[in-house]
Amino acid sequence: MKVVFATGNENKLKEIRQITEGMDIEIVSMKDAGFYADVEETGTTFEENAFLKASAIAKKSGLPTLADDSGLEIDYLGKEPGIYSSRYMGEDTPYPVKNAELLRRMEGVADEDRTARFVCAVCYVRPDGTSETVRATMEGIVAHAPAGANGFGYDPIFYLPDRGCTSAELPSEEKNAISHRGKALRMMREILEKEPQVAGGAQ
Asked: Which of 3, 38, 103, 124 qualifies as a FRET site for 50, CA 20 to 30 Å off?
C-alpha cells in the first residue's frame, strides 16, 4: 500500500519509514505524490491542522495520507506558542531567536512553574474521506538556558528532568524512542496494521 506522508521534512520521512519498516507499506513524500502547494493551517487544535493537511492531499492524490502537526505548549505562558509554534514571531524567524524570546519571558520563573510539553497529532485520511487521529506528548520543563546540538526547533530549551538534559542533548535514537512524534507514529502504526490492504498483504 502506498501512503503519502504530508511533509517536506526529510527527518520526518526517515522516522516514519523506520517506524513502518517490515510493513507492506511504501511511504512517499508530498512531492512524490505530485502535491506541491502549502495547505493553510486554519485549525484551532493540532488535531484539526493535521486533518486539514492530510485530507487536502488525500483528495488531490487519491492516496491514503498521513499528516502531523506538532508544537510546544508552555503552561506558564497560557500554552504558548502551541499551534503557532512554527509561526511564533514570524515563520522566517530563526529558532535561536524564538528560544531566546521564550527564555526572556520565563526569566525568574521557578522550576515548578516551568512545566511544558511537546505535542504531536498525527492524522490518517483514507481516499474515501474517513480518518483516524492520534495524539501523544513528551512532558518536561523550560530550561534556563539553551543546550545541545542534536535537536532542532525548540529542543535546546526543552529540559527532561528524568534524563537530566535537554531533548537536543539526547542521541537521536533515544529521542525518537521517547519523543511526542515517535510515540504518535507508533500509535499510528497500530492503526495502519489493521488496514485491509496491509493486513491482507494486498497492494
From this structure: 103
